[in-house]
Amino acid sequence: MRETRTLEFKETITNTFLKTVSAFSNYEGGVILFGIDDNGKAKGMADVKQSCLDIENKINDSISPQPDYKIEIQSDNTIKLTIKTGIQKPYLYKSKAYKRNDTATIEVDTLEFSRLVLEGKNIRFEELPCKEQKLTFEILHQKLKESIQIETFNKDTLKTLNLYDNTNGYNNAAGLLADKNQFPGIDIVKFGENISIIQKRATFDNRSILEVYDKTIEIFKDYYSYEVIQQAERKNIEKIPETAFREAIANALIHRVWDVESQIRVMMFEDRIEIISPGGLPAGITEEEYLSGKISVLRNRNLANVFYRLGFVEIFGTGITRIKQVYEAGLQKPDFEVSENTIKIILPVLEENINLTDDEMVVYKILSKTVLKPISEIAPYVSFGKSKTTQLLKAMGDKGVVTVEGKGRGTKYIIR
Questions:
Q1: Nearest 5°: phi and psi at 356?
Q2: Residues 92-106: pLDDT tens digits?
Q3: Most buried of the four, 100, 151, 193, 341, by CB within 10 Å?
Q4: Which residues are bridge partners to 337 per DSSP?
């Protein structure tokens, strides 16, 4: 047994555990085991009943407001303290709020503290009054007119969309949708054959995120969508499914944190696109729930509502599921990486699955779409021998998946 983000060991009772009580109460909750050493070995407590009383008194006297916890005596004379995430955040110890950083407990910074205060009041950053109140909404008006035929556009319209109220004026969600604003946006880089070759660089910020969305889609189409003339018909070809890219960009704009001066990063490569959004998962949702689409927690619900009304997203919380569905027949699948401060979505070039065997798929993933590779650069990364690897490459060549160039020792392979 080892310490984790939500599990801590304490061999004795000292005031240091109170910082962890604050951390667990402020975030996802957790367990503290008393009478357990740092290696996870049970030592027990000399007087468990008195120890339970000491723990209870320390929490009640030192943590404000009162956290939700339970104390249980275990059969090996250890004590289990379970702390639930609270709703009256922030939970303070000596006037400071704490959080878990892997297996350590640290004080939160000023930004994180302000987020806890808002969460305790059930207020989102997007609902706070916007610093700039001289805003115009020509782009939003036009989009509403095109999508749901709204002709009259005034402050009543903005009230309906939860972007304005008579007391506080425009909120931050309104600022993000305004024609001009002070918010970050999206930074795009299109690379060539390698990261040393930059074909295009564009940054869209300080403008309506509706315009940011449109501009980003335009650049996508320039590089990943083209037409092919087949007899008398024109056929549109998408190297990467536009539906998946639209979902990923809408997801990034709706679910990112907007209280940091950081751009959404879109990195475009020959074989994939990477979208990196500031802010990890919202409180109340696990990585498994996020990736499976079982539950959706809206960080910016007013923005999500506008995107939904405009048809940019179909149903709240289905973005990841829809991206996966688009790639169901694909040889390579999209990838999702979640960290404490970012979410990355990787969209590979779509290639139809032509029934490769499991062993062939292993080889396929090692091959490059832009660089010819000899057998010596492939065999070390597979569990089978050089001879079988060569046979697999030949079979993949027969299926039209791999192109073979050269002969003998000079033979090299590349994904067709």
A1: -75, 145
A2: 999 999 999 889 999
A3: 100
A4: 344
Domain span at 362: 358-415
Q: Are residues 233 and 90 in the same domain?
A: no
Q: Which helix (H) or strand (E) holds 412?
A: strand 412-415
Inside any domain, residue 284: yes
Establish if 353 belongs to a structural domain: no
- Answer for the pair 396, 363: CB distance below 8 angstroms, yes or no: yes
Q: What tokens does 159 get?
A: 């009230």
For the record, the structure tokens of 238 come out as 């998408």
CB-based burial label for 83 (10 Å; 0-12, 13-18, 19+): buried
* Integer Cα distance of 383 and 365 in angstroms: 14
8 A C-beta contact, residue 378 and residue 413: yes
Residue 90 per-residue DSSP state: P
Helix (H) or strand (E) holding 191: strand 186-191
Tokens 């801590």 belong to which residue?
8
Task: Express as a percent the part of the chain with pLDDT over 90.
Answer: 62
Helix, strand, coil percentages in the chain from 3-state DSSP, rounded to 5: 35, 25, 40
Q: Is the pLDDT of residue 146 over 80?
A: yes
Residue 111 amino acid letter: L
DSSP state of 152: -
Whether the predicted model's global pTM rises above the 0.85 cut: no
Paired tokens of 234: 């024109």
Residues 190 and 152 in one domain: no
Tens digits of residue pLDDT in 245-285: 999 999 999 999 999 999 999 999 988 999 999 988 887 77
- Tokens 């709240």 belong to 316
- Which residues are registered as beta bridge partners of 105? 100
Residue type, 343: I
- Give the separation between CA 90 and CA 93, rounded to whole angstroms: 10
* Domain shared by 210 and 318, yes or no: yes
In angstroms, rounded to a whole number, what is the distance separating the alpha carbons of residues 344 and 301?
A: 21
Q: 387: which DSSP letter?
A: H
DSSP string, 197-229: -EEEEEEE-SB-HHHHHHHHHHHHHHHHEEEEE
The DSSP-derived string for 318-351 is -HHHHHHHHTTTBSS--EEEE-SSEEEEEEEPP-
Identify any residues that bridge with 83 across adjacent strands, giving them in sequence order: 30, 69
